[in-house]
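Worked example

This section walks through a single chain of length 281. The input is the sequence exactly as stored; nothing has been trimmed or padded.
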Amino acid sequence: MPERKKIYITVKTYPTISKEYSELVCTAGILEDGSWIRLYPVPFRKLEIDKKYPKYSWIEVDVTRNTADFRPETYRPDLSTLYVEPKRPSTKIDWEERRRIIFKSQKVYTNLQELIQKARSEGTSLAIFKPTKVLDFFARETTREWDSSKLAILQNLSQQMSLFQTPEEIAEEFKLVKKVPYTFHYCFEDDTGKRSTLMIEDWEIGMLYFNCLESSGGDEKIAIEKVRKKYFDYFVSRDLHFFLGTTKQYHNTAKNPFIIIGTFHPPMPSPFLQVDIFDVM
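Given that input, the structure is written out below as tokens.
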């Protein structure tokens, strides 16, 4: 039976191509009781404008346990029931409100091996991790085109679409997001001094790369350096946390099944109450 869930969205991964569902985004968030939930599949770019939820927003949706995925946090959303709670107009980010919701009852891991063991013993596939020290951020070149076999399947699907759709509507239905030709990685230490390198699969970093590429006149080297300035120079100076998630394919087989599916980077907490002089009347 479907259940109505209220979810605070914290993660949207960069779109990927699926043989079963065309273009997909993995979404994850925090329930009202503070526990994790993953929503899959979500063809995010095909949602109506008023249903395209941003990060750090509340949504409500009917969900059922996704039995095709053994990871306990994974649920299948009924997107026809999706409601996105309007955000209050504000020019200032309420980091303390975000902290309160995200850390309500979540353990913040600082030992990566402890988390990996929990993934193996309990199936945990979503978590918050606080690196003890961030050592580096770098990009690696990867394939520049989507998998040709998956593209062929999408082409066949487009030819099987309803006769009532125009060619333009079919083209829009299967319009692909640009593939990022680099993967981005953090190298860091945990509380034991163990060094690890994890890939980042976040919607924001993919879009940031393309925005930087445009502002750099198409120079990929400059674009990557701009991405590094934000993710290393800026984020590392703040109270950086990683949202970690496993992939279904490698959850039970990889030595470390986790990747970084999002970052949380509020200002450093202060032991003193800070009062903004502009708020004082």
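What to look for: The radius of gyration is 20 Å.
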